[in-house]
């Protein structure tokens, strides 16, 4: 067979293979299962978006009957945590969503967990840390030592509140404390709603403390002390099954596709070289 024909056939086979694998990998439905979506590390805008995209995928897939959020996070930024809380509150009407705390589910991570239908936690896990913290370094004396002076022109007296280049005034402190307490009250109210607890009971626990899974169960911050397997069996029974459904960890696929595309790109380059070489003969 001529080199040009062989190269063209190889090129067509590669394209067909790419289409077939994509359809098989993404769209072929299988038996009903429970999706596990991981929430790990510090919660910020980037990790929030990645997690929310994976959660949306699980909610949209027909073969996924329910979702368990596997949490191992110390928390993070306020707004991303609140956005996830609000998203899950609405999403629960579509499919049941549980959370499972393995090692730590604190602060913003507990904020997220409080929005789910049910919380499981390991007995030795750390749960809670309901509270808000605002930290500002003061560098004024340091920059004085190195001979730097900051000149500030501002439109209002609070415009540079929180600047590390000057000492905080009492008026600044009262202003920041008001902001912190506003966010703190939102946190407490949302936990109260999510956990269906009296707001006074939540406020009594909302002083920044963490609790073990066992103590958190006693305080009603979680529903059950148990493992991931326990959570899977529970959510499966909630869905009407007598046995635990199979699970699938929902993860980003970019790494797989990047590797696959890289292989295809290299192969196509080789095919094109062969086609060009054949055409020049």
Uncertain spans, ≥5 residues at pLDDT below 50? Answer: none
Summarize the helix and strand pattern as letters: HEHEHEHEEHHHEHEHEH
Class inferred from helices and paired strands:
alpha/beta
As a percent range, the share of helical residues equals 40-55%
The count of helical stretches stands at: 10
Query: What oligomerization state is this entry in?
Result: single chain
What is the first-to-last residue Cα distance? 14 Å
Strand content: 15-25%
How many E-type strands?
Answer: 8
- Give the integer mean of the pLDDT values: 86
Largest sheet: 8 strands, mixed
Q: What characteristic shape results from the CA principal axes?
A: flat
**C-alpha Rg (nearest Å):** 27 Å
Structure overview:
The chain has 281 residues and is α/β, with parallel strands linked by helices. Helix content is 51%, strand content 16%. It contains 10 helices and 8 strands. The protein has helices at 3-26, 45-60, 78-91, 108-113, 140-145, 170-195, 199-205, 213-218, 228-238, 254-280; strands at residues 33-40, 64-73, 97-106, 118-121, 126-128, 210-212, 224-225, 246-249. Strands 1, 2, 3, 4, 5, 6, 7 and 8 form an 8-stranded mixed β-sheet that branches. Strand 1 (33-40), helix 2 (45-60) and strand 2 (64-73) form a beta-alpha-beta unit. Helix 6 crosses helix 7. The longest helix is centred in the C-terminal third of the chain and has 27 residues, at 254-280. It starts with a helix and ends with a helix. 27% of the residues are buried. The mean pLDDT is 86.
């Amino acid at each position: 067979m001529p080199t040009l024909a062989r190269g063209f056939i190889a090129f067509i086979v590669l394209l067909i293979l790419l289409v077939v694998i994509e359809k098989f990998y993404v769209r072929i439905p299988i038996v009903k299962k429970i999706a596990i979506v991981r929430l790990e590390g510090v919660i910020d805008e980037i990790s929030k978006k990645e997690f929310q995209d994976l959660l949306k995928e699980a909610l949209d897939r027909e073969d996924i009957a329910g979702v368990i959020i596997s949490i191992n996070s110390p928390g993070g930024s306020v707004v991303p945590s609140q956005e996830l809380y609000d998203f899950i509150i609405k999403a629960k009407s579509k499919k049941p969503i549980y959370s499972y705390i393995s090692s730590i589910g604190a602060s913003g991570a507990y904020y997220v967990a409080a929005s789910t239908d049910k919380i499981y936690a390991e007995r030795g896990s750390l749960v809670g840390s309901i509270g808000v913290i605002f930290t500002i370094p003061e560098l004024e004396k340091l920059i004085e030592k190195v001979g730097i002076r900051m000149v500030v022109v501002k439109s209002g007296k609070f415009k540079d509140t929180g600047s590390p280049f000057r000492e905080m005034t009492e008026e600044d402190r009262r202003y920041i404390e008001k902001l912190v307490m506003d966010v703190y009250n939102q946190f407490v109210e949302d936990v109260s709603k999510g956990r269906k607890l009296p707001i006074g009971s939540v406020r009594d626990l909302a002083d920044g403390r963490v609790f073990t899974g066992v103590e958190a169960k006693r305080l009603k911050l979680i529903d059950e002390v148990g493992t991931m397997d326990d959570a899977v069996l529970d959510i499966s029974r909630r869905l009407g099954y007598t046995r635990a459904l199979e699970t699938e960890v929902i993860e980003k696929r970019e790494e797989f596709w990047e590797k696959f595309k890289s292989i295809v790109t290299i192969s196509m380059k080789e095919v094109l070289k062969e086609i060009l070489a054949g055409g020049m003969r």
